[in-house]
Every structure is written in structure tokens, then in C-alpha cells.
Amino acid sequence: MVRNSRLIRIAGGLVCLAWCSVASFGQLDNQRPPSQSQQNDRTATGSIRGRVVMANGSFANNSIKVTLLNIRDIVSIVYTDNQGQFELRSLNPGNYQLDVEGDRQKFDLVTERVQVFRGTPTVVTVTLKEKAGLPSSSNGAVSVSELDPNIPSGAKKEFDKASKLAAERNNEGAMVHLRKAIELYPRFVMAYNDLGTHLLALGRLEEAAEVLTKAVALDGKAFNPALNLGIVLVHQHKFTEAANVLGTAISLEPNSPAVRLYAGLAAMGLGNLEDAEKELKTAHTIGSVRFAIALYHLGQLYLNRGQRDLALNSFQLYLHEVPDAPNSDEVRKTIAMLR
After folding, report:
1. CA 96 to CA 112: how far, in whole Å?
2. CA nearest 265: which of 274, 254, 276, 275?
3. Burial 96-133 (b: 16+ CB within 10 A, else e)
4. Residue 154 in contact with residue 163, Cβ under 8 Å?
5. Is 0.70 surpassed by the pTM of this model?
């Protein structure tokens, strides 16, 4: 384990990753107790919690654009995390339309009608539809778990129950059903993966690493377990192992901003600042504002190299993209120091 100022900065930065982490389920709510008026406002509105999945039932692991419309106009545009999940909050009760747009060269636009109710979330699952004649993977790597016809119906039902509870942010409940699914089918790679992400979200890193390692061993071409195992290893500061696992994930999905972000963090932990800079820049280029956190880590990297002007520029751009970031006060103090 590296024990120096570089590691301290990375460890501090990792606190911010909960806000963009692909293994977490949506953005974290502010922990301040809501006022009575805020509670009344929440009661008066509703929300949509959804998940975008592929035709085979696996979740979409790249950023998918979700547009919410009413009869007059666009209400909101959000993007899924790498678990295919999204959330739209503070919606007036009524009927809406969801337009779900993946890569237009690979998928057709999917439209769903949804109804929002007062004071309760509407849970939806949207299935992407591949255009006819396309291969199942852009790089030719086909996951065994995507083709596995042997998953028994009972295990599938338990997995579906877990997915529904996950959309409702019920990690503990989801894990109960995922463990049942694995008991019924010990080679259920997607169940291992989802169980690992819940454990990660709860901070149970050792358990998460064990579960995700099993998933990777079962299917070496499954992207999500490799990515999520890499995330866990970065959080554990096991940077050499993380770099190896994330390298495999990059070979499977080179255009995933999440895998590029964590590959950059692993490289920073190892002191490979040139590689880290390349990966973090790539993460932001692909992921744009959703991965603005890469700019923060670039700023830290430039500080480590003594490049104050580049650090200042990265921190300023970070705050421009996410002015209300959880670490915004810290970043503003750093900017003031660099000026």
C-alpha cells in the first residue's frame, strides 16, 4: 500500500466518488433533516425510479439518455448509471412520456407511458431494443452469462424481486433475494454482480470483493463484475490488483467513462501519473458532466506534479460543471490558494 501525500489526496477524493460512483444507486440525498415545508412538498409530488435493461435482462452498463415529457414540453433529461438506473424527482402527479435513447446506431428509440402518483415513486423497467442485424457486442466479446439458458425460473424470479427492491433503494431486501437466486443457481453471474454492488454501496468492501471475484471467475467476459471489482479494489487501496482488473474491463468496454475513471484512480495510487492523466481525461471526454469528478482528480494530479496552472484550471472547470458538488467548499479553498 502506498503511504504518502498522493494516497492521502486520493483517499480524500474517494469520498466524493459516492456521488458519481457507478456502483451506487443514484445520487445521495442531503443528510440534513427536511423541514416541514420540504416534507409537505415531497408529499405533494411524486417521482419515477427506473432501470434500463437489455433484451436478455442484463442491465445497460453505458450511459443511456432518458427524457421525460408531458403533453407540452420536455420536463427533464437524465442519464442512467452503469447499473442502468435513473431517477426523476419532484414531479407533479399526472401522465408522462419517457423516451429512452441508447446508441442510435445500435438501438431503436424506446417510448414508455408512465403515470406519476402523489407521495409515492413510480417504478419502471425499460427494455432497449437492438436494431435488426447487429451483433450483440460492439467488440465481439460475448458474455457467457448473457447466453446462459440454464438459469431456472425460480432463480430468475428471485433476481426480478431483487431488481425491484433495488429500484426502491432497499439494499438489504434486494440482497436477501439475490442470495436466494444464487442458492438456486450457483453460476448466476448477474446475481453475484448485483449482490456485490449492494455490498459496496453499504461499505462492506471485503464481502463485496469476495462476491465479485466469484462473478469474474465464472465469466471472464462479463464487463460489470470486472468494473465493480475494480471499484472495490480502488476503495481498498489495492491499486495493483485494481489496475489489472480494470485493464480487463477496458478491453471489454473501452468507451465506459466509469472504467476509465477508476483506471485513472488506480494509476494515481501506483504513482503512474502519466497513465492516470490519460485515463481521467478520457473519462471526462466520454462522460462529460456526469463524470466531472474526473476533473477534480486531475486537479489533484497536477498538484502532485507541481503544475499549479493546470491544477487551477481543472478545479475551476470542475466547479463550473458541478457548482454544488459535496466538496465544493474544499475546492474553492484550493482555488484561492492557487491564485
Report:
1. 9
2. 276
3. bebbbbbbeeebeebeeebebeeeebbbbbbebeeeee
4. no
5. no
CB-facing half-sphere around the CA of 30: CA atoms within 13 A: 9
**Contact of 122 with 114, CB cutoff 8 Å:** yes
Reply yes or no on whether the pLDDT at 66 is more than 50.
yes
Residue 33 counted as domain residue: no
State the pairing for strand pair 46-53/121-127: parallel
User: Is 39 within the bounds of a domain?
Assistant: no
Task: Give the separation between CA 142 and CA 294, rounded to whole angstroms.
Answer: 29
Same domain, yes or no, for 114 and 152? no
Identity of the residue numbered 121 = P
Q: Are residues 68 and 170 in the same domain?
A: no
- Is 60 exceeded by the pLDDT of residue 182? yes
Q: Which domain holds residue 275?
A: 5-25+147-338
Give me the half-sphere count of Cα atoms (radius 13 Å) on the Cβ side of residue 18: 13
- Give me the number of domains the chain comprises: 2
